Amino acid sequence: MSIDKIIENNRDTWARRFGVYKKFPEKVNSWLRIRVSQYHSRSKFTKNIHKFKFRQYIDYLNLFNQFLENNHNSDIERFAELEDTKRSEIFIAFINHLLEISRDSKIKGVRKFGETTILNTIQSRVMSYFSSINKRIEGYIDSNKYGSEKNFVLVDKKLNRKIHLCFRSKDYALLHLFLSQTGLRIDDILNKITNGNYFLNKFQERYHITTKKGEVEFMSSKRMVGLKKLFITKEIEQKLKLFFNLEDLRELDLQQLFLTRHGKRISEKNFNDTLNYFHNKLNLIKRESLSSNCFRRYMETSIRLYVKPKLDDWYLKLITFHYDKQIDHYNDLIKSDSWLYEQFLKWENAVMLFVRTDEAKINELEKQIKEKDVKIHNLELELLNK
Q1: What are the φ/ψ torsions at residue 310 (nearest 5 degrees)?
Q2: 128 with 175, same domain?
């Protein structure tokens, strides 16, 4: 049976069950046709269209439309016309809303879904609708690739600042900044850059991590994804200079980073235990847990939300050390120091917690002040000569 025949046979039923279909039947039908076409292109069930879950797709889009109607006096059509950042903020609020309901046992009488369903299925279904009308949602929450039902905290900048201020140890606080602003996994931070083979070098106005052997590429341990220039943010730079009383970070021995007061390296377990201790201070839902990987998610989400124009997905996967076949097609760009530096400056402000580098604006203001000072001085001379 063709998709048009299926739509014709179910049109009235879908309109009765789902408000979003009743209001936007042709738009939803167009989306379903696209999804069925994509499904057939990669599915072994190419001859059995009934394997495609039509009702599930419409149901989850309807959930989002209801959320918009109840919380924003809007619908999917008006939502699509919002700015990219606003769309992403509302969409993340929707996913968080579903997650909060799923975790709160006191809430009764509403539909609840497992976290894997919310992150892997509902999120992707709704996002695919807006992609089909060229209104792609850039900000979202990482899907749960391994199907784990573990509850993790969704960290935004406001919460991340609170977390940072909870640390009493400067080394723990510094580790938190590295996790939030470098894209590195905790194992690479604690065990690789501190193994004696790496040091900080400088390119133009920013420091980056490189090897003592003269090799310039940093290679992550887990995915073996390399990055020629692993830059550190201005905020990390300032903290390092303050903690170690250095003017030039090229003199810093990275083996001295992330040590306890007994001189031992902080362990991943101790860091995560410290994060869990912050539950009461931060008033988090009891079943939620903080882990080091929450801050890598924070970095990627912040870049997606606040950097304009948007950065390519392949580049985001590169700086968060995820393997992507597309990266192979950008070898010339990846090898360019100046290009990597320019890209880094585009997202640096988005991830920093308490520092903002607006050198261009500051320079412009200083120029304006000097010009005003000259004008005032000239006026004073004119008055004296009269």
Answers
A1: -60, 145
A2: no
Of 60, 84, 64, the C-alpha closest to 74 is: 64
Q: Are 321 and 220 in contact (CB under 8 A)?
A: yes
Closest CA to 38 of 3, 11, 5: 3
- Residue 258 φ/ψ region, left for φ over 0, alpha for ψ in the -120 to 50 degree band, beta for the rest: left
337: amino acid identity, one letter = D
Query: Which residue from 185, 119, 181, 128 is spatially nearest to 151, judged by alpha carbons?
Result: 119
Say how many C-beta atoms besides its own lie within 10 A of residue 221's C-beta: 12
Residue whose token pair is 């299925």: 121
Please spell the DSSP secondary structure of 179-234, one letter per residue: HHHS---HHIIIIITTSSSEEEEEETTEEEEEETTS---EE-TTT--EES-EE--H
Residue 94 lies in a domain: yes
Q: Say whether both 168 and 79 belong to one domain.
A: no
Q: Answer yes or no: are the C-beta atoms of 32 and 57 closer than 8 Å.
A: yes
Q: Please provide the size of the chain in residues.
A: 386
Q: How far apart are CA 298 and CA 315, in angstroms?
A: 16
Point out which residues pair with 209 in neighbouring strands: 200, 230
How far, in Å, CA of 160 to CA of 180, rounded? 9
Rounded Cα distance, 201 and 341, in Å? 13
Residues 11 and 80 in one domain: yes
Domain housing 326:
157-351
Which stretches of 254-336 are DSSP H helices? 268-277, 279-282, 293-306, 313-319, 331-334
Asked if 205 and 335 sit in the same domain, the reply is yes
pTM: 0.58
| Residue 180 CA, distance from chain mean position | 10
How far does CA 254 lie from the centroid of its chain?
27
pLDDT for 151: 60
197 and 108 belong to one structural domain: no
Provide the CA 174 distance to its chain's centre, in angstroms. Answer: 20
Q: Is residue 149 part of a domain?
A: no
Paired strand residues for 227: 218
Contact 25, 35 (CB under 8 A): no
Residue stretches of the chain with pLDDT short of 70: 1, 38-50, 138-151, 212-217, 219, 221-226, 285-288, 323-335, 357-386
Q: Which amino acid is at 6?
A: I
